[in-house]
Amino acid sequence: MIQIKLVSSWDHHMISNIYHEIRLLQSNYPNFSLWFAKVVRQLNSTTRKMYVALDEGKIAGVLILKRDNEENKICTLRVSEHYRGRGIGSRLMNIAITELKTNKPLITVSGAHINEFSGILSKYGFELHQKYKNYYCKGDYEYAFNGVLIPNSFKLSEAI
Fold first, then answer.
1. Cβ-based neighbour number of residue 11 at 10 Å
2. Which of 114, 121, 71, 118 has the alpha carbon at shortest distance from 93?
3. Which of 8, 18, 75, 133 has CB atoms 3.0–4.6 Å from 64's, for a disulfide?
4. Please, are residues 53 and 61 in contact by the beta-carbon 8 Å criterion?
């Protein structure tokens, strides 16, 4: 049975496991580890929340949210390949909608992963608003759904 847990910044073991699970995103987002460290520092604030879907201690999915005056954003929504098609992404999406207090949260998706998200984006009625070339990674597109990225918003190249 899949359980979904809110992660605290004090849960170092879980945070380490989550980082290990989603570190493949480093190839699409430069300075990913610096960004992740910033997320962890903000977990006990009202700005960031991280959820993990667990199957008997094994990570099945991860959700990272940002809610502040500028953005209500799903920063990371990742379901482990072995667990896809089991409704975990939908459960995490429902948490995101509740936590961000909107049926249309901002989410951006790398061009390298856009096909993986087509089903869930369609299911929840996400609308493409902007496509950015070279926003995070040279030669790749970042697709913004349900809103646009703020021009002065945090870029991974400015993670420090």
1. 17
2. 121
3. 75
4. yes
Per-residue pLDDT tens digits of the chain, which is 160 residues long: 999 999 999 999 999 999 999 998 888 787 899 999 999 999 988 999 999 999 999 999 999 999 998 889 999 999 999 999 999 999 999 999 999 999 999 999 999 999 999 999 999 999 999 999 988 888 889 999 999 987 644 444 443 3
Task: Find out whether 34 and 25 touch, Cβ atoms under 8 Å.
Answer: no
Q: Write down the H helix ranges in 23-113.
A: 32-41, 88-100
- Distance, CA of 41 to CA of 6 (rounded, Å): 15
The two tokens of residue 42 are 């903000």
Can you give the three-state secondary structure of 93-152, one letter per residue? HHHHHHHHCCCCCEEEEEHHHHHHHHHHHHHCCCCEEEEEECCCCCCCEEEEECCCCCCC
Decide: 155 and 30 in contact? Cβ < 8 Å: no
Cα atoms in the 13 Å half-sphere on the side-chain side of 90: 9
Give kind and range of the element (H or E) at residue 49. strand 48-55
120, 107 contact by CB (below 8 A) = no
